[in-house]
Design a protein that fits this description.
With about 1000 residues, this protein is mostly beta strands. It has 9 helices and 63 strands. The two termini are about 25 Å apart.
Length: about 1000
């Protein structure tokens, strides 16, 4: 973690003298006017520094790097102020020079996205030689400008943005890996969505609304919007977290920003080896999970027999110079040898094997003192293979029978990112970035060899368990999935007096191609339910014996395009006040499976911010921001709403069963086919013609205070108000009624075909209203569908207290507490209430009016109190201890059931309404999950073998106490079917629990040669 301001503060902490820190801050105060404007950074691979000198005329400031050979002279202005941007991350020496004489020198650490403050360089050559490198003698008090590695939230008055920056050295001392998701969970305001997606929720948004970056390139997983395309965590140097109030130069996000940079080389050759080893399942180190039972004593979750072998991830890396002082490299080879795991279900044993290998190369070329180029390349090959075996007795690991089938997933991923920076002159700088990433996923299975056989299951109404009884292991045949994204970004920065103007633009294009078909013979399911209402409206036979056949044919190639442009103004309005104003324009373009554009969503987002250096010495900052934020919808959104797709369900009585394939014989169809989708949708069928981009308003206000040389505090208030979403609805009956009232008396529209709208807003829908074969446009008021406007409000108060590690007090501690409220009728892009992790913009929540009855209440993320404590302690003998304690109050749950009226179109969305036994229950009003807490610990021992060799061994343990708390309960009240009297059949799994993950132990060995 790095500090962009307060280099003098860091030195005072090093010496443990508060007076020196205050003196250094006062010497910095005069530099605020220009330095804040020139030092601001946003989404940059490079960093900068600024300061003020008081040695008089005829001096220059020389910035150099022993590690890279970089040297550049900067002339202070008439007031002694200077700044330098576009510096590659690393340690720099800042010297005050008059003629051939060096008057004084400071060591300054420059970090990505930040500008480091340099204490006053005024002094003498004697002072420079008497003090160790990186310190300054100020009236007998030495002040270092080197940033503290544990200063996670520095007081940076150069920007209204509030961010946290984590360096890999601190993360390596904790029981946490370097992945952005794991790092984000160290902040109490970040919620870990362990019951649904396994990703983090930031700023009250759903986990699908964050944006992820590597070296400035947006790597957010556009297939799902969940997480990102990943680079090896071992290669990550720094990760920056912004929970709210991001500036306009970042790609729009209604959630958080997680930005990582990759390690770079220097003139000093280094090499190393790291291995991360997880021992096999054992009672002490890696115990098994607990089983969970339902209301009738059957297994809801069966995990107590699952085991895994030892798992190792190993990396070999090297860094250095290919051409001294000019061309540097960081290279990494990663390998995960095959490891085996056994998992058991009711009737099967699954034996899985996973392996991975990857390569990474990061090149940095210092073309000149004013130009640099960074190129990052990565390739990854991963593979998982599964064998399936029958169990002759349910849930009995000792009854493994014959081989059943196999499946496989092979993924080939590739990355290429380039970054160029040119400091044209003292007032102009240019940044360019371009990149490409892609992955091809192959998913063959033994089912593809038996496509002449149907996939067959049997449903037991007494236990409500569905079991595979046929010869196929999979219901679908998958084609290779090919996903890629390429994009570029550029901006020009112009220093114009007290204004720093930034003009920028970006372009990203994504493609997702995939085909998914059910096996040609379809998916048969046997039932034993008499006199229940089927989806096609028919009643099942009195003896309960019937079978369903489900057929699904879907897929295609889909493209989305995200364009953006922005202008920013950082205005130093007064000596201590910086005002930020910005305007961002985005345009999201979506194409269907045959290449036709079906939706275009332009939107403009204004931003305002302020940073007030209250005391003029960077010891107390009051900041705030207000802005409008939107988010692009992922490629999977187009895949879901615009793909060529045909799906239908048939119901039959039968006279026999084929003993070879288990397929039903002697079929007689019950009623008509229940058709959900049919053929290739046209743009008019996919969406209303005037759908608008989603957006929300965000505001934050915060204060940061340097309490002592080592302690700092933060108070942060946040507010979010969601105003518009894009969702699908299927309520054709509402359109039909309105069209008939407008004079189209013969118009009919079904309640199965869905299209996109902005719920609660008027829309224009093209249909053949007068039956002449031509499409007419009809403007339909939002109230015609009886759907509410989206509502999602989030408030939070965060308190944080941080102690930076010093030689005198060698411990780091961060205490973070958050109070939050989250309520409304939608979580955002995904439906967390119904535990739906996919189908962005296609949740069931707004399909029919009855699904929203009772739908306004506490949302799934309404966790009122959260506490996270993170700390390390370094002993003089090389031992280091680390720990993370997290705790929070329980989240709300809902009661979800089936609409009891068979004539209501919402009956076609079973188990998705707030009806339970015919009574509407309010969202989030079922029960609260219990209090959650977990303790993770680590112990690291480091050996300095000799001058060139270092070795460390670390033991990590998560959930040290092996606590088995409840992290979720099943919210589905009924089975989705109704008796002939419209009463619901209660689900035996209602309120069944999901448990906290058990203790996990791993070991890390690191060796470094230099």
């Amino acid at each position: 973690m790095s500090s962009s301001n307060g280099g003098g503060r860091a030195g005072a902490r090093t010496m443990g003298i508060h007076l020196g820190a205050r003196f250094a801050r006062r010497m910095l105060a005069a530099s605020v006017l220009l330095a804040c404007a020139q030092g601001v950074m946003a989404q940059s691979l490079t960093g900068g520094l600024y300061g003020h000198e008081s040695a008089g005329d005829g001096v220059i400031v020389r910035v150099s790097s022993r590690a890279t050979g970089f040297t550049k002279d900067v002339a202070p202005d008439a007031n002694g102020r200077y700044a330098l941007a576009g510096l590659n991350p690393g340690d720099y020496q800042v010297s005050l020079v008059r003629g051939s004489e060096t008057l004084s020198q400071q060591d300054v650490t420059v970090n990505p996205n930040r500008s480091a403050a340099v204490p006053d360089l005024g002094g003498t050559a004697a002072a420079a030689t008497a003090a160790p490198a990186g310190t300054e003698d100020l009236g007998g008090v030495r002040v270092s400008a080197t940033a503290m590695a544990t200063d996670v939230t520095p007081i940076d008055v150069s920007t209204p943005e509030l961010s946290t920056s984590y360096n890999y050295r601190l993360i390596d001392a904790l029981p946490v890996d370097r992945s952005p998701e794991s790092i984000a969970r160290l902040d109490s305001s970040v919620r870990f969505d362990q019951h649904n997606t396994g990703f983090v929720s930031i700023g009250g948004a759903s986990p699908a609304e964050n944006r992820y970056y590597y070296n400035e390139f947006d790597v957010t997983n556009d297939k799902t919007s969940l997480g990102s395309t990943e680079l090896p965590a071992e290669a990550i140097s720094d990760t920056q977290l912004i929970t709210s109030g991001a500036g306009a130069s970042w790609t729009n996000a209604t959630g958080g920003i997680l930005s990582s940079t990759i390690k770079q080389g220097t003139n000093d050759f280094k090499a190393g080896y790291s291995v991360y080893f997880t021992p096999p399942t054992s009672r002490l180190l890696n115990p098994r999970s607990h089983n969970s039972l339902n209301a009738i004593g059957d297994y809801y979750g069966y995990a107590s027999a699952n085991t895994h072998d030892g798992l190792a991830q190993q990396y070999l890396w090297a860094s250095g110079a290919l051409v001294k002082d000019e061309l540097f490299f960081f290279a990494l080879l990663g390998n995960e040898p095959a490891s085996k795991a056994d998992a058991y279900s009711q009737t099967q044993k699954q034996v899985s094997s996973v392996r991975d290998k990857n390569y990474l190369l990061n090149l940095t070329w210092n073309i000149s003192n004013d130009q640099s180029l960074n190129v990052l390349a990565h390739r990854d090959y991963s593979q998982s293979f599964n064998n399936y075996y029958h169990l002759t007795r349910n849930y009995d690991p000792q009854s493994v029978g014959g081989f059943f089938g196999w499946s496989q997933t092979r993924t080939d991923s590739r990355f290429l990112i380039g970054n160029y920076h040119w400091q044209i002159d003292d007032d102009l700088s240019l940044r360019l970035m371009g990149g490409y990433l892609g992955s091809i996923v192959y998913s063959p299975s033994s089912g593809e060899q038996n496509t002449e056989f149907p996939y067959v299951t049997s449903y037991d109404s007494a236990t409500q368990v569905q079991t595979n009884i046929g010869r196929n292991t999979a219901a679908y045949v998958y084609s290779p999935s090919d996903y890629w994204r390429r994009g570029w970004k550029g901006d020009l920065t112009w220093q114009l007096g007290d204004h720093k103007l930034v003009f920028g633009g970006e372009y990203y294009k994504h493609s997702l191609a995939s085909t998914t078909d059910s096996v040609p013979a379809g998916w048969y399911t046997y039932y034993d339910q008499p006199n229940v209402t089927l989806q096609n409206g028919s009643i099942s036979p009195a003896d309960g014996r019937y079978v369903s056949q489900y057929v699904d044919i879907e897929g295609g190639s889909f493209e989305t395009i995200n364009k953006g442009a922005y202008v920013e103004d950082y205005w130093q309005a007064a000596n201590r006040v910086l005002i930020y104003g910005a305007l961002r324009w985005d345009n999201y373009i979506y194409k269907d499976g045959v290449g036709h554009q079906f939706m275009r969503l332009p939107i403009t987002s204004p931003r305002l911010g302020v940073s007030w250096d209250v005391d003029g010495d960077s010891s107390l900052k009051v900041g705030g921001s207000l802005g409008k934020y939107t988010i692009p919808l992922p490629s999977s959104f187009s895949f879901g709403v615009a793909e060529p797709r045909s799906t239908y369900t048939n119901y039959y009585t039968y006279t026999g069963v084929d003993p070879n394939t288990q397929a039903p014989l002697g079929l007689t169809q019950i009623g008509n086919s229940y058709i959900q989708n049919q053929g290739v949708p046209t743009p008019a069928q996919i969406a209303a013609t005037d759908v608008k981009a989603p957006y929300q308003y965000e505001a934050q206000l915060y204060a940061q205070k340097q309490l002592t040389p080592a302690w700092s505090g933060l108070v942060q208030l946040g507010w979010v108000d969601l105003r518009r979403i894009v969702e699908d609805t299927c309520y054709g009956g509402g359109v039909q009624a309105y069209a008939q009232a407008q004079g189209y008396a013969g118009y009919q529209q079904d309640n199965h075909t869905c299209w996109l709208i902005n719920p609660g807003e008027a829309f224009t829908l093209k249909r053949d209203y007068d039956g002449d074969g031509q499409l007419e446009a009809l403007r339909i008021p939002g109230g015609a569908l009886d759907l509410p406007k989206p509502r999602h409000k989030y408030y939070n108060l965060k308190l944080a207290l941080t102690h930076a590690s010093t030689p005198a007090e060698p411990y780091f501690l961060n205490l973070s507490y958050t109070y939050a409220r989250e309520y409304g009728n939608t979580n955002g892009l995904i439906d967390e209430e119904r535990r739906s992790a996919g189908w962005i913009g296609q949740t069931q929540a707004f399909n029919y009016p009855a699904l929203e009855y009772g739908g306004n209440g506490d949302l799934a993320g309404d966790i009122r109190h959260s506490l996270t404590a993170t700390g390390t302690y370094d002993f003089a003998n090389g031992l280091s201890l680390g720990g993370v304690f997290s705790a929070h109050t329980g989240a709300p749950t809902s009661c979800l059931g089936t609409v009891p009226d068979k004539d209501d179109p919402a009956f076609n969305a079973p188990q998705s309404s707030h009806y339970c036994d015919g009574v509407v229950r309010k969202q989030g009003d079922d029960r609260r999950l219990p209090f959650f807490w977990q303790l993770d610990l680590s112990a690291t021992y480091r050996w300095k073998i000799d001058q060139d060799n270092d070795l460390s061994l670390q033991l990590r343990m998560t959930n040290v106490t092996n606590r088995q708390g409840t992290i979720d309960i099943n919210q589905v009240y009924d089975t989705g079917t109704l008796n002939d009297d419209n009463s619901a059949i209660r689900s035996v799994n209602y309120h069944a629990a999901t448990w906290q993950l058990p203790r996990t132990t791993s070991m890390v060995l690191r060796y470094t040669f230099q």
